[in-house]
Each structure stands twice: as C-alpha cells, then as structure tokens.
Amino acid sequence: MKEKLKEFWSPMMEETNKWHFIVNMIGALGFIPAEFLSRRIGGGGFWIFMLLLIIWWALVVLIFLTYRYLKSK
C-alpha cells in the first residue's frame, strides 16, 4: 500500500516541469469560480472564498495525479 501511494504522489515530487506549471495555472484560475460562489453562498466572505479555492486546487491536483498514475500503468 505504501508503495502504491508513493507511486501515486511521485509526479508531484519530481523537479518542476511544464506539467507542474500547467497544473498550477489551472489551480490559480480557480479564484474566478471561488469568488463567484463565495458571493452567492455567503455574501462574499473571505473564509468561504479561501475554502472554495483550496477545494478547487485540491481537485485539480488530484485529477492530474490520477491521470498520471493511470497513464503509467
């Protein structure tokens, strides 16, 4: 199990490359839907915005890692 987790996280442990740049740019663009949703949900609260941004970024990274893991199989 530990080896599978190590293999899953390995693409993000490499040196920075173009894929990391793309993933970080898509993650950074998450401020647009996060700002929109925070205004709709909680009246524009800062903490709601930050929570939504972190959730967006986590989803982007997990989708990228899943793609790379399945591609390597």
Q: What fraction of the residues are assigned to beta strands by DSSP?
A: under 5%
Give a count of the beta strands, DSSP E runs of length 2 or more.
0
Order of helices and strands: HHHH
Q: What is the arithmetic mean of pLDDT?
A: 84
Summarize the helices and strands and which ones pair or pack.
Blueprint: H1 2-13, H2 18-28, H3 31-42, H4 46-72
Helix pairs in contact: 1-4, 2-4, 3-4
Give a summary of the structure in a few sentences.
It contains four helices and no strands. By secondary structure, the chain is mainly alpha-helical.
Main features:
73 residues, mainly alpha, 4 helices, 85% helix
Describe the model.
- The mean pLDDT is 84.
- This protein has 4 helices and no strands.
- Helix 1 crosses helix 4 and helix 3 crosses helix 4.
- With 73 residues, the protein is an all-alpha fold.
- 85% of the residues lie in helices and 0% in strands.
